[in-house]
C-alpha cells in the first residue's frame, strides 16, 4: 500500500528522486503517465497491466479518448542508483513541474504533483467535502 507525502526538487535534466519506500513496492520498472487533475501518476507494472486489460476489455469507441490520454505519454521508468527517475519534458509540462515536487501515495499508485498545485488542491478540499464524499461512498 502506497501512502504518505514526500517533497523533492526536480533537477534541470528532469530527474526526480522517487521515495525509497515507494520504489520497493513499485518494482524495478514502473510506468509514469499523465493523470487527472493535471498531475502525473506512477503505476507498478502489474497495476498498469490491469488497467490496460480493463480498457482493452471495453468498447474501443467508449475508451479511445482515455487510451489516447494515458498511453500517448506513458513511459516505463527504471530508477537509477540514486533512486531518481527521468520525467519527460511533455509529462513535466502536463503537470507544471518546474522545481518543487510532491509525491503522494494513493493506495495502489502514486501521484506526482507540482508542490504549489498540491497545496492548492488540498486547501480546496475541506472537512465538509470529505464528509460528503465519505457519506456518498458509505464509508
Q: State the strand order across the main sheet.
A: 1-7-8-4-3-5
CATH topology: Chemotaxis protein chec
**Largest beta-sheet characterization:** 6 strands, antiparallel
Low-confidence stretches: none
Organism: Allofournierella massiliensis
Subunit structure: Forms oligomers.
Keywords: Cytoplasm, DNA-binding, Repeat, Transcription, Transcription regulation
Domain SpoVT-AbrB: 5-47, 74-117
Task: Record keyword descriptors for this entry.
Chemotaxis protein chec, repeat, transcription regulation, 6-stranded antiparallel beta sheet, single chain, alpha+beta, 139 residues, 6 helices, cytoplasm, two-stranded antiparallel ribbon
What's the layout of helices and strands?
Blueprint: E1 2-9, E2 15-17, H1 20-26, E3 30-34, E4 40-44, H2 45-56, H3 60-72, E5 75-77, E6 84-86, H4 89-95, E7 100-107, E8 109-114, H5 115-123, H6 127-136
Concise synopsis of the structure shown:
The chain is an alpha+beta fold and 139 residues long. The protein has helices spanning 20-26, 45-56, 60-72, 89-95, 115-123, 127-136, and strands at 2-9, 15-17, 30-34, 40-44, 75-77, 84-86, 100-107, 109-114. Strand 3 (30-34) and strand 4 form a beta hairpin.
Tell me what the structure shows:
With about 140 residues, the chain is an alpha+beta fold. It has a single domain (about 1-135), classed as Transcriptional regulator MraZ domain (Chemotaxis protein chec), CATH 3.40.1550.20. It contains 6 helices and 8 strands; from the N terminus they run ββαββααββαββαα. The protein has a 6-stranded antiparallel sheet with strand order 1-7-8-4-3-5, sandwiched between helices. A two-stranded antiparallel ribbon has the order 2-6. The longest helix is centred in the middle third of the chain and has 13 residues, at about 60-70. The chain is globular and about 45 Å long. The model has no long low-confidence stretch (mean pLDDT about 95).
Amino acid at each position: 500500500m502506497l501512502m504518505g507525502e514526500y517533497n523533492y526538487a526536480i533537477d534541470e535534466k528532469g530527474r526526480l528522486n522517487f521515495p525509497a519506500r515507494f520504489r520497493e513496492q513499485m518494482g524495478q520498472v514502473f510506468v509514469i503517465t499523465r493523470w487527472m487533475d493535471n498531475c502525473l501518476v506512477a503505476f507498478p507494472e502489474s497495476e498498469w497491466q490491469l488497467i490496460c486489460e480493463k480498457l482493452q476489455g471495453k468498447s474501443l469507441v467508449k475508451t479511445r479518448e482515455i487510451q489516447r490520454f494515458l498511453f500517448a505519454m506513458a513511459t516505463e521508468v527504471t530508477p537509477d542508483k540514486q533512486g531518481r527517475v527521468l520525467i519527460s519534458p511533455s509529462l513535466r509540462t502536463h503537470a507544471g513541474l518546474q522545481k518543487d515536487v510532491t509525491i503522494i501515495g494513493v493506495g495502489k499508485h502514486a501521484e506526482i504533483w507540482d508542490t504549489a498545485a498540491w497545496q492548492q488542491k488540498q486547501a480546496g478540499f475541506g472537512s465538509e467535502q470529505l464528509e460528503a464524499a465519505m457519506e456518498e461512498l458509505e464509508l
